[in-house]
Amino acid sequence: MSSTAKFLAKRLDREDGVGTNKKPIPFNKQDYESLKRECLEKNTLFCDPTFPADSESLGYKELGPNSSKAKGVEWKRPKELWPNAQFIVDGANRTDICQGKLGDCWLLAAIASLTLNHNVLERVVPPDQSFSDGYAGIFHFQFWQYGEWVDVVIDDRLPTKDGKLLFVHSAEHSEFWSALLEKAYAKVNGSYEALISGRATEGFEDFTGGIAEIYKLSKAPPDLFKIIQKALGLGSLLGCSIVATNANETEAVTSLKLVEGHAYSVTGAEEVHYHGGLVQLVRLRNPWGYKEWTGAWSDNSSKWNNVRPEEKAKLNYSAKDGEFWMAYSDFVQYFSRLEICNLTPDTLTSEEVRHWNYCQFDGTWKVGCTAGGCRKNKDTFSSNPQFVIKLEDVDDDPHDGKDGCTLLVGLMQKDRRKDKHIGRDLKSIGFYIYEVPDKYKGRSNVHLGSDVLLHEKSVANINDFTTRREISERYKLPPGEYVIIPCTFKPNLQGSFILRVFTEKKATASPMDVNITANIQKDRISDSDVDPSCKELFMQYAGNDSEVSVWELKQMLYNFVSKRTDIKSDGFSRETCRHIIDLLDKDGSGKLGLVEFHKLWMKIQRYLEITQNNSEIFKQRDTDKSGTMSSYEMRDAVKDAGFEVNGKVLQVIISHYANKQQAVDFDSFVGCLINLEMRFKTFQLFDKNTGKVELDILQWLCLTLN
Description:
- By secondary structure, the protein is an alpha+beta fold.
- The protein folds into four domains: about 15-210, no CATH class; about 210-340, Alpha-Beta Complex (Cathepsin B, Chain A); about 355-515, Sandwich (Jelly Rolls), CATH 2.60.120; about 525-680, Recoverin, domain 1 (Orthogonal Bundle).
- Helix 5 crosses helix 8 (about 200-210), helix 14 (about 550-560) crosses helix 15 and helix 15 (about 575-585) packs across helix 20.
- The chain is elongated.
């Protein structure tokens, strides 16, 4: 199935609610219920063929087949390790997540935070799974992946060494939900090794579908402690980390037993009475399950002796489980970054709890078409995808005392971890926000060109393009209409992305692109209208039947373009010549008569030289006089010929008609316009004034195979 067909099919699925948490997409097309039922009927334990229990699933380099870390690894089911194995013991909690020999502390910090909200946890870890009733060696988990929820099936064979789990494990040795969750997430990303290194926000988002905000603690806002408290109260997921002082010493331990380059989860924020005043405390958890802070307010700190007994009991400060309290003032001093994932997401800084308004869009940067790069690339920048948002109402009770419309914009590039094993790096991404010019306001059926984007200043943008999986930023703008342009820093970088926009008050948003239309000229010509020179040319190639066949037309067009030095062409293909005849052949002979040939000749002259506005089409786009036009010029060139096409159709056109250098020669340009005209006319034949056509299988095959 072509990528275009898959795209169209997915759009139909989304209209039916497929891809939501309540209706997730089976990952790898594996249906949990049917696979489990099959295993129970056959009395066998499930073995997952798509994520086998071998070195391929472990990794590709550090955990590759020939690596020292992969040697001696045995895959065992929980019941082989612990006869009384259980999925969850006494409810899932933070102590169920202890790090193993894999650098995925960022993921474990996210899982630990997940346990603080059991409603959210059950969206990721479906209940009613166990090693007793209906056990068949199969489990499933659900993750948010780039705009849609997927249901991931795994078998319960886990990597071990010396009879112990190699990676994440629970402090309760008979409990295995966290190890199985880690395996399911490794499957989604291609291998366990793909999980090495990351930020907790990535896990937060994949567990909730929320959007993350990042605070640099060296520039913490004055009310950040209150923001943390409110976020925890709303069930938001929080993580923090310390930037390593030496890049060669990640996970170095400081004198106060904090770990650099390591992800912690923030699990609490409270105020306690101390010497007649209030002290702000935050609770952190090291996913290792040990190595705790030893400074003020740590487990053995004498400061606890001066706290009211009921407060000490409430805070449970002395457990040796990797979790510890510290003063908020020390937190912002010793830690570098705080990450908050808004769940619904909810406003964290307003006095009232309310939901954000939410919009989500999929998009692609297509080389030679929609991968225009940043604004510095003046010739291509306007070709990037565009999305319009209309902000109408200002925020209620603005936190900063300034009127305006709050919006949170997140741009995420897809398949980051899945492509790590082939050495594909993240792209440097960013976005710009422009105010829509007055003449275009109220419309989404336009595509802003360089005449607007290169002459107007953006009202907001990302300060620095970055190679992170997602960049997000909070803005406050006056009411109005704005266009958001996501892009890579460099042009011609292929990729897919998801753009998410959250606004405090209700807003409308949509892709900003032209409607698909055609203004096809009707050529009414009789025998007497045929130009003598055209008739002479026709007779040179017409056979004894006084008509031009596909092969005769191919030869004639080749001779025409080969004599011209101002255009490049490698000759018209048989397919293009057949399309020409299909379009112009009125009597069904499969050939062109004189009048039909004359119509073709008029089209070619028009495509080459003159548009409806009496300016050149092909040659005016050939700015470097190379005899070809840039593929980025195709949108305007096709428009000059009477066709309006949106970004998705344009991508199909470029992939079919541009060469490896992203250039379009003359024969490809003519072939494109002929094909477009034929497609539009065919659609109009079947359209019953509804904008849609319905075909049976016979009609479909006859049309598509033609």
